[in-house]
Amino acid sequence: MYKKNSRSSYGGGFNSFERMEPREAPVEVGKQYDVKIEDIAKQGDGIARVNGFVIFVPGTQINDELKIEIKAVKRNFAFGEAV
User: Fold this and answer.
1) Which CATH number goes with the domain that contains 20?
2) In what order do the strands lie in the sheet with 65-73?
3) pLDDT 10s digit of each residue in the chain, 83 long?
C-alpha cells in the first residue's frame, strides 16, 4: 500500500526542478552593432534585437536603422546609444 517516504507520481518536490543556467548575452559593453528599431517600449525607448536579445535605445523611432554602442548589459536586456 502506502510506503513510508514515497513520493507521488507528480511533483517530485523542490529538487525536481532543473536549474536553468542564465544565457549569455550576445552583446558586450563598448562594442558597436548595426541594428533596426523594431518597436517602442512603454517608456518611449526604441527596441532593437541582436540574436533575439533585447536592446533599449533612447531617442529612436520604429524602422530606424543605425549603429549603436552598448552601454550596459543586464541579465535579459541591454541599453545602447546611437553612435
Assistant:
1) 2.40.50.140
2) 32-36, 65-73, 77-82, 53-57, 46-50, 39-40
3) 555 555 555 555 555 445 555 678 999 999 999 999 999 999 999 999 999 999 999 999 999 999 999 999 999 999 999 99
